[in-house]
Design a protein that fits this description.
Shape: globular
Strand content: under 5%
Largest sheet: 2 strands, antiparallel
Distance between the termini: 50 Å
Number of helices: 10
Length: about 240
């Protein structure tokens, strides 16, 4: 029975991790589909997405879009971690934005040099869906994240993709916080969307310097809108 001492995500993730450790889900086997897990544990699909992100961050599973999640280890690794408290801790949220500026600025520059037609199509589709759901928080977060993931894929550098996937949970928290804030101000969601468009246009134009600047500026503006800029260490550019 699920208890209230831990969040639903923590409880379900712990139970699945125990099953993996006990061999119920063997290394190399696929986890049941998300809808099956949701029914099994009596939680929503959103909780299961968070669970799989946690298990992936622990090094227990790998996920591929369209092919589900595969168990890759019976024990979790103790690699690089970013605190899950970024949604409520402003200093940690500021640190995450600072990290994203470096990571995603570099990814945008590489994407501008290496992108192909399929990459541009993936970015364009994410942007189109994002524009359609500007005022719908849950869908908006999904398409926002998809856009950033598409840029990472366009680097054709597996490490960028793996690191962004590793940070998926933290990325969703940051995006969700920023998008919720944007909806409090008339016209701001549309303005933020144009920042995404600027990144896309620079990548399409094969201009790495402009792509890097557009990506960093977008994240700087997001941090400014959340009034996080004063939390950055001295010397960090925020405008």
């Amino acid at each position: 029975m699920l208890t209230k001492s831990l969040t639903l995500t923590e409880q379900v993730a712990h139970r699945i991790a125990e099953d993996i450790a006990d061999g119920v889900h063997a290394v190399g086997a696929k986890l049941p589909p998300g809808r099956v897990l949701a029914e099994q544990y009596g939680v929503s699909a959103a909780v299961i997405r968070e669970v799989t992100e946690r298990l992936r961050a622990q090094g227990l599973i790998q996920s591929r879009q369209g092919s589900g999640s595969t168990v890759v280890s019976r024990t979790g690794g103790q690699g690089f971690q970013v605190s899950s408290g970024v949604a409520v801790n402003r200093e940690l949220l500021a640190n995450l934005y600072e990290l994203r500026m470096e990571l995603e600025g570099g990814a945008a520059a590489l994407a501008a040099m290496r992108r192909n037609a399929a990459d541009l199509n993936a970015m364009a589709q994410a942007l189109a869906l994002l524009e359609t759901h500007l005022e719908h928080p849950e869908q908006g977060v999904e398409h926002d994240v998809s856009f950033h993931v598409a840029i990472a894929a366009a680097t054709h550098n597996r490490s960028y993709q793996d690191l962004l996937q590793y940070l998926n949970r933290q990325l969703r928290l940051a995006v969700s916080t920023a998008r919720a804030n944007s909806r409090l101000h008339d016209g701001l969601s549309a303005a933020v969307h144009q920042e995404h468009v600027a990144v896309f246009e620079a990548i399409r134009a094969r201009n790495p310097d402009r792509a890097r600047q557009a990506a960093v500026r977008h994240l700087q503006q997001a941090a400014n809108r959340l009034q996080l800029d004063h939390l950055f260490p001295a010397g960090t550019p925020t405008s």
